[in-house]
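Retry 2 of 3 after timeout on previous attempt. Resubmitting structure tokens to design endpoint.
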């Protein structure tokens, strides 16, 4: 994360969160923010952010003078998904839903990633008999790796509330209620209506409950007398929302998650080889057109349910193949400018980021793009053939341990296919790549 991104995230927090911003105006001397609730703006803290020279308030508009104003504005509208005129982009229903879920999940992904990698490494350690499964070290490390998944509703409750403009700890409280021992997976009788659902490691119930309770909470914050604002909104909202959530929203969202997970697994199981080929052949285009957020908001259900996911497993092998291909271009090309792009792109792809390879190398060379699409289809088909699934988040070479099955560790298949993917991308590119005299920018 660069310095501007850090300052932007802090700026948005002190402006009351993303949902508190109606529009941004790029004026000559400053950026002007129109906010929904000026009481959420922390003007004194805004002035302490690096790069901000001054911040003033005039009713519901905030004027901020800062260094590199134009760069800040570009990154801001990209972060907020605003148009170039500083207004929110109009979104379709599907795009709005997937973007919302992505905004909720993305802040938790770093935790899910390193915990998932740790769980994968522990599976390797057990399979190689280098750690005692009954020892304190293993138990402690396993708790570190598993806790974020078990208590996932707490983390997602926090991020959902923050996204909705509700006090984040209220959302976290919703998550703790859902996984409370006398609530989760217990028969609850509400005046003759019996409900039973398991909420540990779930993600849709807490998101939907917080989403639906947010308007009431925000309304009460504005309408209650000042003396009641400290506790009234949470007390009233949770007393109403939680029974409704446990009777209707929670069970319904669990059914929806199960249905989506079943549909995805049906596609995988129908013919895992063909499914792997399709995913592998399209992954570069999914990345190219920025569809990753939409994909992850759907397929991540299989990871959270513990059943494993093929799509994200294939994505790891495609990125390693792209790394090999970029290295092959660097060694084969005679153009210094292309070599300067290829080597950093190879390193970046090894760690899971393939955009530099796509935009810097593949998009200007139709043959190279097609070669990588073909290689992606091959490694995807092999992943489907070997029954490889991804059980936690993690990218690039760090994603390999997250594909180890805890019951039957498939170390040879996972790491073997990782090596094959990189080697295939490297060898095929080294043999077939040719410098183009005339660059074609069409893909």
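Retry 2 succeeded. Sequence:
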């Amino acid at each position: 994360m660069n310095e501007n991104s850090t300052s932007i995230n802090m700026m948005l927090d002190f402006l009351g969160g993303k949902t508190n911003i109606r529009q941004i105006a790029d004026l000559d001397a400053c950026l002007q923010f129109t906010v929904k609730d000026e009481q959420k703006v922390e003007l004194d803290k805004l002035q302490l952010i690096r790069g901000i020279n001054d911040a003033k308030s005039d009713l519901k508009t905030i004027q901020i003078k800062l260094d590199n104003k134009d760069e800040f504005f570009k990154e801001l509208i990209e972060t907020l998904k605003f148009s170039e005129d500083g207004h929110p982009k109009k979104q379709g229903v599907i795009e709005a839903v997937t973007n919302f879920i992505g905004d909720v999940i993305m802040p938790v992904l770093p935790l899910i990633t390193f915990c998932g990698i740790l769980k994968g490494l522990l599976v390797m350690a057990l399979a190689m008999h280098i750690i005692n499964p009954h020892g304190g070290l293993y138990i402690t490390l396993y708790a570190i790796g598993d806790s974020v998944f078990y208590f996932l509703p707490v983390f997602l409750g926090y991020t959902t509330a923050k996204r909705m403009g509700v006090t984040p700890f209220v959302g976290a409280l919703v998550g703790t209620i859902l996984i409370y021992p006398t609530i989760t997976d217990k028969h609850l009788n509400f005046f003759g209506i019996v409900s039973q659902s398991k909420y540990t490691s779930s993600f849709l119930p807490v998101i939907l409950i917080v989403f639906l309770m947010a308007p009431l909470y925000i309304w009460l914050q504005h309408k209650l007398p000042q003396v009641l604002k400290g506790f009234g909104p949470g007390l009233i909202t949770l007393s109403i929302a939680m029974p409704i959530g446990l009777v209707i929203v929670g069970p319904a969202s669990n059914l929806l998650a199960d249905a989506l997970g079943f549909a995805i697994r049906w596609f995988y199981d129908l013919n895992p080889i063909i499914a792997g080929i399709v995913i592998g052949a399209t992954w570069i285009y999914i990345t190219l057109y920025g569809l990753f957020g939409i994909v992850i908001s759907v397929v991540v259900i299989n990871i959270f349910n513990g059943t494993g996911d093929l799509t994200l497993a294939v994505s790891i092998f495609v990125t390693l193949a792209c790394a090999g291909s970029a290295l092959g271009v660097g060694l084969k090309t005679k153009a210094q400018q292309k070599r300067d792009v290829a080597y950093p792109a190879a390193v970046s792809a090894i760690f899971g980021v393939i955009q530099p390879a796509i935009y810097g190398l593949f998009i200007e060379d139709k043959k190279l793009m097609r070669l990588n699409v073909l290689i992606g289809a091959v490694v995807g088909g092999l992943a489907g053939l070997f029954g490889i699934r991804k059980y936690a988040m993690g990218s690039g070479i760090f994603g390999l341990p997250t594909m180890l099955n805890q019951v039957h560790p498939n170390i040879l298949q996972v790491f073997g296919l990782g090596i094959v993917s990189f080697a295939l991308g490297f060898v095929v590119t080294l043999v077939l790549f040719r410098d183009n005299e005339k660059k074609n920018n069409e893909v």
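Attempt log closed. The chain is about 60% helix and 5% strand.
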